[in-house]
Task: structure prediction
Amino acid sequence: MPTARSSPSRSDVLQATARTGARTTWSPIVALATGIAVLVSSEFLPASVLPAMAADLGISEGTAGLAVAATAIAGAVTAPSIAALLPRADRRTVLVGLLVAATVSNLAVAVAPGFAVLLLGRLVLGVAIAGYWSFALGAGTHAVPGRDSVISTSLALGVTLATVAGVPLASLVGDAVGWRTVFGIAAGLGAATAIGLAAMLPPVPPHPAAGLTMLRQAIGSRRLMAGVLGVVLVAFGNFSAYPFIRLAIEEIDRRATVWLLLAWGVGGLVGNLAAGWFAGRLRVVVSAAPLLLGAGLLITTTAPSLPVLAVGVVLWGVAFNMVPVATQLWVTRVEPERAESALSLQVTAFQVAITLGSASGGALLDGHGLRTAFVVGAAFALTSGALFSALRAPRG
Result:
């Protein structure tokens, strides 16, 4: 007879099962969120090392800035078409392949002899980001059923961490060892993340109806397309103002720039978590986030003092970072059978809005001043909130 010491007790078995379940639950989510963090960090790397990169390549800083715009444009063009071009491919294979493409993109930029090669690499990165965003939530919900709000929050959290920590860190590293080394490090992180995702994410078969038919049906959904318009409006509103947040802060107190930018990021973390936490009241969240964003922009641009400015900046960070989580969940619940195509349209909406919003905000700043750019951004955000409030709530 085996002794009590050598035989596992029922409690031991339950604990081991729980530990295994925890690993099974969280490892795919962590792997997917890490992938999006690496991709978003890569997207904004040029902003961290722009002067050195421009000087090395012999181009103006304005021309070098096209490295970010090109990525967004490529993402906007390709997001709806990737699923249609790969209707039968296992989604884990596609996601890993997209991370490999991002790795190659960063490596190409790191060794680019001129701007043409750099621009080509950045276009490839845009394709990788758009495809990854389109497939990641669906892959996560397949691996961990019933946890869509947790997965969406985790992906958005990866974005926030990339922008709050990754971009400043890249700037410091670039100053210390050079901008090409920064992109080389990003390539290494991309390769490691691809390996980790391949190991942690189970196979994800495509939806039987994936492809052009699904995309056409999704585009034919009036409620979905109204929501996509809402995404365009709120993202346009944010990016009409976000590139100039430092200018708004410096108008009140230049010495407060660093800690207020950090406060915006902390607000972003809160917004990510809050959107996931209140996902059961999705219509309220998806409507409130743009309305709060509009309020945050107005407070920021009209603040008469530093304390009021701090309130506006934090509210702005909270509100905008609720938007990716809330809208991801909204489009997938509006079109649960066509979630992949719905998500690709949401990604396209964001990428188009980033490009148009930044360009329009710059034109407004040059022509009419900082406050006008912020007021216009607030108006677009408030319109988005009103639109989502008017739409029938999707079932959770």
In short: The chain has 17 helices and no strands.
